[in-house]
Amino acid sequence: MSKRENFDFELGFFEQVQKRMPSDVRVISILAHLYTKTGRIDDGLKMDRKLVRLQPEDPTTHYNLACSLALKGRKSESVKVLRTAITLGYKDFEWMQHDPDLAVLHDYAAYKSLLEEVLD
To answer: Which of 42, 59, 108, 115 is the least crowded, having the fewest Cβ atoms under 10 Å away?
Structure first.
């Protein structure tokens, strides 16, 4: 059974709920997670962007958007959004260094520079 098959029910359910409650942050957050988990990165990115619009001051929302951007290979944008997340109060730098969603950034100079800044 593929990853997508495992989550068909949940995806269908939350997609229907989101149609009825298009600005419900909890529903959008669950969909963003499910989309990413099932390899629907573009859909997850769309939900993460929507969450940032709805919660512009939330550091975790920005962090999750940075992860989606990294998964799309958009390194520069990802680091820029990570910086915003940190400015807003994101502080779990240990996780940030080991988050598999950010693996593509590990050898990226701007990401290394950002880590040096926050870890000093």
So the answer is: 42
